[in-house]
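Sanity check. The docking grid for adenosine-5'-diphosphate depends on where the pocket ends up, so I'm generating a full predicted complex first rather than guessing from homology. Inputs follow.
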Amino acid sequence: MKQPFARVAVKIGSNVLTRRDGTLDVTRMSALTDQIAELHKAGVEIILISSGAVASGRSEVRPAKKLDSVDQRQLFSAVGQAKLINRYYELFREHGIPVGQVLTTKENFGTRRHYLNQKNCMSVMLENGVIPIVNENDTISVSELMFTDNDELSGLIASMMDAGALIILSNIDGIYNGPPADPASTVIREIGQGKDLSSYIQASKSSFGRGGMLTKTNIARKVADEGITVIIANGKRDNILVDIIRNENTVCTRFIPSANPVSSVKKWIAHSEGFAKGELHINDCTTKILFADKAASILPIGITAVEGEFEKDDIVRIVDFEGNPVGVGKANCDSMQAREAMGKHGKKPVVHYDYLYIE
Ligand SMILES: Nc1ncnc2c1ncn2[C@@H]1O[C@H](COP(=O)(O)OP(=O)(O)O)[C@@H](O)[C@H]1O
Ligand SMILES: N[C@@H](CCC(=O)OP(=O)(O)O)C(=O)O
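Predicted complex below; grid placement will be based on this.
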């Protein structure tokens, strides 16, 4: 059977993999592994982003004294990640599929060199039939520099690996149009571009999750805008992964991808906002040009202020004349040169169109 997607990133949330008491739900892991193996054997390349390290480590150690939240995370994830990957290794081995562990941190996405290095690692794994199993390296991540949660990480991975789809598995059937516990609420089956979902989302999270539904929807929209289908579905439902791929009527929320996919380098820039070293403030006319259909670079004549100190090739935020962030780009010169050229005609672009992502 022809598969709709050649490459799929699958994110499994902590609560899918853990029982109520916090122990690892090996039965669920085994069921999901079977489905991934089925898709893999049908020729779909899978990249797995799996949470569950902290949750599975929690039940393994009894700390001698009360630990602060950083110590807890480091201790539990160190123990739990080993347990988690060991389980995956055994489960996939039953299908004759090799798996490899990729532990990463947010900083590894900060420079283009690090980014391409990671991309190369996962590409070579896929070329050799190995399923990458990715998680944040919680043991060495610095709290302030962590991913909001693994939804953010999965968005980066799907984008970096040019996946056709990102499937986010949680403990819920999709995004509800009201409180999920309210019987009158139903799952929103399709979400088009530009739809504001904030009024539907409650602040509640599952007991082992970190980010909640709001981060999921924000990431999903961003990734879909880059041309990737994003699906939020219930990882606790039997056969969910295979059903999603093969049966369009499966209950889940689908974010319709943009019809104009963005280039690989623009995808990196789109997710690099957190690494921005400075800001370019642009005038009204340049803002209008950027939002028009034609490709346009940021020329010095349209810049009204340059904030922060940055080097050539650093990431900068683009801010409109009202102070709203409108995009992210890679600077073509350093901040001193940008200040010198600002407001002048006939100068080289400060951000070239090929390295500019407008939100
Ligand atoms: N409108 C909504 N539709 C679905 N879930 C919602 C909504 N608003 C809040 N949620 C909550 O978001 C939770 C899923 O997010 P999260 O706890 O981060 O899961 P995960 O651990 O899988 O990443 C659901 O269990 C639900 O309680
Ligand atoms: N890296 C953490 C993941 C925490 C997290 O983001 O969880 P979730 O919100 O369930 O995706 C772990 O493995 O425990």
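Relevant for the grid: The domain at 7-262 is CATH 3.40.1160.10 (Carbamate kinase).
Also worth noting: The longest strand covers residues 7-12.
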